[in-house]
Amino acid sequence: MTVASFLRALAEKTPTPGGGAVSGVVGSLASSLAAMVVSYSVGRKALEAHQPKLAEAHRTLGRAADLFIRLADEDAAAYQAVRDLSRLDPSDPARAGLDEAKAACLQVPMATLAACGDVLLLLKELAGISNRHLRSDLAIAAVLAEAAARSSWWNVSINASTGSVPASTESAPHGQDALAQADRLRERCIGLARDVERACGELNGDV
Q: Stretch 171-180: mean pLDDT, rounded?
């Protein structure tokens, strides 16, 4: 989809794409914007000591942007699968995949939350070693990553609290276990975003 076609589809009276897909797209925007900051930092003589770290950061952010888009697609697919399978007759063998689809409705936003934390941690590291003339862009990337994290938390919260997902397992927490984990990830993301904004403000002389 183009951006315009995605927005048109989002505005339609259809279940997907929805909030989960938006969370992934916003996470990808955050990663791509941060990658732009790094692009303007790579090769700068004043940042020569940080070039290896910057080059690796650029690769990492590119992978993160791709990951968020995949998660956006997976979120939409999981939710659509739950809707489709729930409408089948209880005797239909295809309903056997319903629990798996419901589990994905938690696992995908949880993965998005975790990825936001990873991106924000990297942005915190970049605040002091990237092109200071793009500090507002780095701060905006942090704001977007936090928004993606908080949005994903809502999806975990709703899906975990409705009791519509399978019980917790050792490898994939669901229900209240998932919500507790999501709470920790959200608070971490909020804290990291504040750290990035504070660092960018110090570079700007605002703090």
A: 67
Kindly provide the b/e burial profile for residues 33-67, where b requires at least 16 CB atoms within 10 angstroms of the residue's own CB.
bbbbbbeebeeeeebeebeebbeebbebbeebbeb
Task: Burial-class residue 205 by CB neighbours within 10 Å (0-12, 13-18, 19+).
Answer: exposed
- Give the chain's largest Cα–Cα span: 68
Give me the pLDDT at residue 166, please: 45
Q: Which domains does the chain have, with CATH numbers?
A: 17-204 (1.20.120.680)
Record the pTM. Answer: 0.89
Read off the DSSP letter of residue 89: -
Short-list 146, 93, 96, CA closest to 119: 146
Residues 6+ apart with CB under 8 A from 111: 71
Tokens of 186: 């959200």
Residue of 79, 82, 64, 78 lying closest to 26 (CA atoms): 64
pLDDT digits (tens, 9 = 90+) for 12-59: 999 889 999 999 999 999 999 999 999 999 999 999 999 999 999 999
106: pLDDT strictly greater than 60? yes
Q: What is the rounded CA–CA span in Å between residue 72 and residue 153?
A: 14
How many C-beta atoms surround the C-beta of residue 137 within 10 A? 17
Please, which pLDDT band fits residue 168 given cuts at 50, 70 and 90? very low
